[in-house]
Design a protein that fits this description.
The protein has about 50 residues and is an all-alpha fold. About 85% of the residues lie in helices and about 0% in strands. It is built from 2 helices and no strands. Helix 1 packs antiparallel against helix 2. About 5% of the residues are buried.
């Protein structure tokens, strides 16, 4: 079951990375949205390290 949870976290992490890259490619990236996504990504990374 831990592998399923870890795979889910990795998928969410990758999805956030894609959203961050997409936001950065916009003509005027939203700094608050980027900060929020980066914090979420960091929380996921920490949770993956604990799993």
């Amino acid at each position: 079951m831990d592998n399923v949870h870890l795979a889910s976290l990795q998928a969410k992490h990758a999805g956030l990375e894609a959203r961050i890259v997409s936001e950065l490619q916009r003509p005027a990236p939203d700094p608050s949205a980027l900060a929020t996504m980066k914090k979420q990504k960091l929380r996921l990374k920490d949770e993956m390290a604990r799993t």
